[in-house]
Design a protein that fits this description.
Distance between the termini: 45 Å
Strand order of the largest sheet: 3-4-7-5-6
Shape: globular
Bound molecules: flavin-adenine dinucleotide, iron/sulfur cluster
Helix content: 25-40%
Structural class: alpha+beta
Largest sheet: 5 strands, antiparallel
Number of helices: 12
Order of helices and strands: EHHEEEHHHHHHEEHEEEEEHHH
Length: about 325
């Protein structure tokens, strides 16, 4: 690894001023060779607090394990707790932060290999199209990149209607989580979100959940030390036993946390039960456009949605 200068910023302002940062994992893979690394973890809030409007504010430097163990989050936003405990390994959950998890770069093996200069590294092709694409997207596959977004926390954050507070040289702004992640175009393919180079995510702000039921379900090859193949968070806003509106967000299937409008339409006006769960799963995959080697993920996504709805209904899943 190339030698680099290290800056340990202790507040948001200094961190933004020092920014031109890159992740260590990509340095080890020789994807990035920065001259300077800025530690933002000591500059950002690491607390979880209630907001005056009945929601919760999570500092970006909060460790994943602290998010998992927080009883307020567990009570108000159980799908976030369910996602947090599935991430990586105990070591990763004790070191990784909410901000780092949401902003982690793609896991595509071509992106992670210095030999492959694809669109996301300034090249002019996507190697996954005619290559090994078994872990790539099955939705939003118009290109130019076919990654799946790697963040487990991003999915429940979008489903619960979170807003992200961002600071940069021009001050601060708030972005709905649903607008934070970007579908790839030739113009923006080098990034996965709306952050400018010198901006930082400082907080995830969750609204008061209201009268909702929620469910989260992940499918993985391995119980630990890996990313999911497909997963889903379902939020159902209830009127008695009937779903008024639902938000169905899938992970590991598209370049962004993928909101499934067909699945949401399948749940609206219906009770939560195994039949409506199956219908939502069917509707969710109606828009799938798999690549040459990943059609198997369609059934996994269908099952993830069905079981997330069943969990929201309080039903047992396998
Ligand atoms: C074996 C393994 C399995 C894993 N499994 C999963 C999984 O199942 N689900 C999952 O979601 N993740 C998984 N991960 C990824 C892991 O959760 C992330 O690597 C971790 O959360 C990163 O956190 P960090 O704080 O160390 O971020 P860093 O590695 O320090 O940063 C990650 C990226 O985010 C940027 N960044 C960090 N903080 C901010 C901020 N506040 N604002 C803007 N940009 C920022 C950095 O510049 C960098 O590009 C896995 C990782 C490994 C190694
Ligand atoms: S999927 Fe994206 S990151 Fe992977 S090779 Fe194609 S352009 Fe690169």
């Amino acid at each position: 690894m190339k030698a680099f200068a290290y800056v340990n910023a202790t507040n948001e302002k200094d961190a933004v001023a020092a920014l031109k940062t890159d992740g260590i994992a990509r340095m080890k893979d020789y994807i990035d060779t920065p001259d300077r690394v800025v530690n933002v973890k000591n500059a950002l809030d690491a607390t979880i607090a209630r907001t005056p409007d009945g929601g919760v504010k999570i500092g970006a430097a909060t460790k994943i394990i602290d998010l998992y163990e927080n009883q307020i989050v567990a009570r108000m936003y159980p799908a976030i707790t369910a996602a947090a405990i599935e991430i990586g390994t105990p070591q990763i959950r004790h070191q990784g932060t909410v901000g780092g998890n949401v902003n982690q770069r793609p896991r595509c093996w071509y992106f992670r290999n210095e030999e492959f200069v694809c669109y996301k590294k300034g090249g002019s092709r996507c190697f996954a199209v005619n290559g090994e694409n078994q872990y790539h997207a099955i939705f939003g596959n118009d290109g130019p990149s076919h990654i799946v977004h790697p963040s487990s926390l991003a999915v429940p954050f979008v489903a619960y209607g979170a807003r992200f507070r961002v600071v940069g040289p021009k001050g601060e702004r708030e972005v709905p989580a649903s607008d934070f992640f970007t579908m790839p175009t030739l113009a923006n393919v080098l990034k996965e979100n709306v952050l400018d180079d010198e901006e930082l995510l400082t907080h995830v702000i969750l609204p008061s959940p209201g009268n909702i039921r929620s469910g989260h379900y992940e499918v993985r090859y391995k119980a630990s030390h890996d990313w999911p193949l497909a997963f889903c968070t379902v939020i159902a806003i209830m009127n008695g036993n009937t779903v008024t509106t639902a938000r169905v967000v899938l992970g590991a299937v598209a370049p962004v946390p993928w909101r499934s409008r067909p699945a949401e339409a399948a749940l609206a006006g219906k009770p939560l039960n195994e039949d409506t769960a199956a219908a939502a799963g069917e509707a969710a995959v109606s828009e799938a456009k798999p690549m040459s080697g990943n059609a198997y993920k369609i059934q996994i996504a269908r099952t993830a949605v069905k079981r997330a709805v069943m969990r929201a209904a309080g039903l047992r899943t396998v």
